[in-house]
Amino acid sequence: MNISALIPTVYPGNLPGFLQVAFFLSLLLLVFKAAQLYLHRQWLLKALQEFPSPPSHWFYGHKIHRDQELQDLLTRVKKFPRACPRWFWGSRAHFVTYDPDYMKLILGRSDPKSHDTYRLLAPWIGYGLLLLNGQTWFQHRRMLTPAFHYDILKPYVRIMADSVCVMLDKWEQMISQNSTLEIFQPISLMTLDTIMKCAFSYRGNVQLGGKVQPYIQAIMDMNNLLFSRLRNAFHQNDIIYSLTYDGHWTNRACQIAHEHTDQVIKCRRAQLQDEGELEKIKRKRRLDFLDILLFAKMENGSSLSDKDLRAEVDTFMFEGHDTTASGVSWTLHALATHPEHQQRCREEVQGLLGDGTPISWDLLDQMPYTTMCIKEALRLYPPVPAVSRMLNTPVTFPDGRSLPKGVTVQLSFYGLHHNPKVWPNPEVFDPSRFAPERTQHSHSFLPFSGGPRNCIGKQFAMSELKVSVALTLLRFELLPDPTRIPVLMPRIVLKSMNGIYLHLRKLP
């Protein structure tokens, strides 16, 4: 017997009245949604018509394998030197630019962060400095800027050095057993240790205990999960996503991250109950990051809400350690693969610190060649590969082409830094690009973004990079592991799909 004969055919006319209404309403909603998506696609096609791109499927968009994202970008950079639309699916596209003139124009405007992209970060880091827009962002930025004043940063150098030395001591013990080492994980612990001591007045050492390992893993998970979600049309809806395996995983990672930052805030609040600690703060000319937040008064006289407080702590806890860990790791990798530059940096550092002189703020400006190498590594491996803006007014670029209000613009720093029209032979590691006598376009090098929304902690990050590189080169010779060549992985922060492995040789 044909099995289909056992299954009754259901027509709308056979359904009870309320089900018929539900059926037709659902059908109407489906038709409405399809029409809405079709009209939005037509609007996008018209908005982006002045900018050619590779052929794309009307439904799937540009299908690019996850492992090939950056290779595909570099192909586009060579073929379309200023910008190129990237279609994710039928009704979603970003305008991707990697031209310094385009970058300068967009970054100088007051366009908000792209809602479609950045809202996915909100359950994790909340609406702090990274996600805020408009007047609220301006108030928070002005409130937090004193935390990065030179008077605050100078004594941090000693704390940074102590954290780096703990990591290097551990490396010495590890290489006695195995001379190859994955460096990104321990560097992440070191930068987290540094940011917790400098910005959050933490009094322990996260490198010597295992309590923060779940937080580090949660950050790694969130990087991957958010990247995956951005490229899945069905995961854009929060309700649908919450029902998926990835949605449950994301929720758990957020909980772990929040538990960590909540504990940091709780600890500092407890310390501030001590009269001696309060007296110490009163004697300070300027407050540390977390103390500014805890003592903050907004313009209307109200204190920062617990929600806003945690958002800023979550934001800076993540940005203050993960991006810097990326920068340090890729810089050490670049020096390992270019031994002649590594040795020149080492000789420079030995000339300053070889007699046992402790590293200090003043000495950081006396490492010109090491600084050039760090900048060249940041050019090749920008810690944040891209940011996005949503145009709130139309824009006309210097070449006469224009975009209407409502288009999402992705500013690809990786594409900019590898653009042969901007940087000749862009894949070559050449620190002389940053020699003092060389001139560059003001927006050709943007490892910390640019414009009024540039990275508030860029001076902090550069100081930590210099301290980490200098002290590492004093103690170790770095060599690449030819059996484990890193595979670049563009996430919120630039990482390697297979880790970053180096051979370390202890110097006499």
From TrEMBL:
GO terms for biological process: lipid metabolic process. One of its GO terms (molecular function) is heme binding. It is found in: Endoplasmic reticulum membrane; Microsome membrane. Pfam families: p450. PROSITE patterns: CYTOCHROME_P450. The chain crosses the membrane at residues 18-39. CDD domains: CYP4B-like. Its cofactor is heme. Keywords: Endoplasmic reticulum, Heme, Iron, Membrane, Metal-binding, Microsome, Monooxygenase, Oxidoreductase, Transmembrane, Transmembrane helix. Its main location: endoplasmic reticulum. Heme binds at C455. GO terms for cellular component: endoplasmic reticulum membrane. Belongs to the cytochrome P450 family. This is Cytochrome P450 4A12-like. It comes from Jaculus jaculus (Lesser Egyptian jerboa). The lineage of its organism: Eukaryota, Metazoa, Chordata, Craniata, Vertebrata.
